[in-house]
Write a structure and sequence with these properties.
Strand order of the largest sheet: 3-4-5-6
Distance between the termini: 139 Å
Radius of gyration: 47 Å
Shape: flat
Structural class: alpha+beta
Number of helices: 6
Length: 247
């Protein structure tokens, strides 16, 4: 039901950093809201919840949540809400109804609970990151230093640059194949674009002008007699001429 990458004090004698932990319960996430987020945070499998707090006492005795202000000791309160994705819960020690001391903040994003880092952890992380980059820069600069007995120390950037340029040229760019989902998604988008912006139809070729009508056509009809007489005259040929006979 619950999934936890680790628990506090998993290794004997070496307590795990709570900033690297996370917790969630998948059965609560769809119904998580402002009214039940504190019940969600007080689940027994949540490693961030302390069972000795006043919230557990109020819950066991079925008292109103307002009774927490009249008690002293450890308690959890809902500090900030940005539905439906973000909830901030504060762990604090109450001394009186008007005086409390904040201890730790927890934020719930999409149902996953994390512990908010304190100022010392943030500064430590930033300093370690800066020192790491400075150390990498010094090591890279030291690789360009050269020493000659007659010339002393000098810098040689050209040889390293030529080697790096040659390595970049020899290295072929890696082509990642597209997945089936990407191919189907692209085909669907192209089909929608073609429907929305259809291709223009090519212009139709112009029709040839009609043949000129002969003189024999009047009022849309052709004189059949003239056509027959012309054909008959073409078929009749004159007789051959007789040549005189010589004795």
């Amino acid at each position: 039901m619950a999934m936890m990458p680790g628990r506090l004090g998993m290794v004997p004698g070496i307590p795990e950093n709570p900033l690297s932990l996370s917790w969630h319960d998948s059965t609560w996430i769809p119904i998580l809201n402002t009214a039940n987020v504190m019940d969600y945070f007080s689940e027994r499998s949540n490693p961030f919840f302390d069972r000795t707090c006043n919230n557990e006492i109020v819950k066991m005795q079925r008292l109103a949540p307002d009774q927490l202000q009249n008690m002293t000791g450890l308690e959890y309160v809902l500090l900030h809400v940005q539905e439906p994705i973000l909830y901030v819960i504060r762990k604090q020690h109450r001394h009186s109804p008007q005086q409390v001391t904040p201890l730790t903040d927890y934020y719930i994003i999409a149902g996953v609970v994390y512990q908010a880092p304190d100022l010392a952890s943030v500064l430590n992380s930033r300093l370690l990151s800066a020192v790491h980059h400075l150390q990498s820069s010094f090591e890279e600069v030291a690789s360009f230093a050269r020493y000659h007995p007659s010339k002393g120390y000098s810098w040689d950037f050209k040889s390293q640059k030529s080697i790096s340029d040659k390595a970049k040229k020899d290295e072929k760019p890696r082509e990642e194949p597209s997945s089936l989902f990407q191919r189907q998604r692209v085909d669907m988008l192209l089909g929608e674009l073609i429907k929305k912006f259809p291709l223009p139809t090519p212009p139709q070729p112009k029709a040839a002008p009609p043949a000129p009508v002969k003189a024999g056509m009047e009022n849309g009809t052709v004189d059949v007699k003239d056509i027959k007489t012309e054909n008959s005259q073409e078929k009749i040929k004159p007789p051959p001429e007789k040549k005189p006979r010589l004795n």
